[in-house]
Task: structure prediction
Amino acid sequence: ETGVTQSPTHLIKTRGQQVTLRCSSQSGHNTVSWYQQALGQGPQFIFQYYREEENGRGNFPPRFSGLQFPNYSSELNVNALELDDSALYLCASSFTGGGTEAFFGQGTRLTVV
Amino acid sequence: GQNIDQPTEMTATEGAIVQINCTYQTSGFNGLFWYQQHAGEAPTFLSYNVLDGLEEKGRFSSFLSRSKGYSYLLLKELQMKDSASYLCAVSDRNSGYALNFGKGTSLLVTP
Result:
């Protein structure tokens, strides 16, 4: 158990719809990162939030957006869903500054049909 | 940008030793992590290297050479439960210390 919880665990959406995924970070951690993991691939960095501000972003289009709340929990929003968005979405919490391990939640499996 | 390479698949025998290599290129290196991921589960932390050399932790060891952009994960006394994907990830200062992962090495341990 890492103390990082994600909801929902599974989700099915239709192409064009919007989705919100949620993550509660581990106690004491102030940084949340989101990753997309396609089947058989390594996780791909989407973006990262520190103290409610985005402080890093990977190669994902603007329809991927996020929020971090004062309690350091976070949301990932994806608009205009595409079939290729089907993946495992992982949230990781850490204490910022680098050099510290990130603890992952169990992920949300999103299927777009 | 990032370029992290590791073998796609490896097979080893129970009780043996296996070495999983990882090479990387990054402009803002701030450490290298190894994670283990069983099918359908979240990645779990194995090791972290920021200085050159070998870090040993039980049956698992990790090595880093920053000048060569090279790391390896060494697994000793392999057990069946070690069958999993092993992910090499580099922390990059230029992206807020976020982790950039390789595609993972799928390790199969056979009896």
Notes: The first strand of chain B starts at residue 3 and ends at 5.
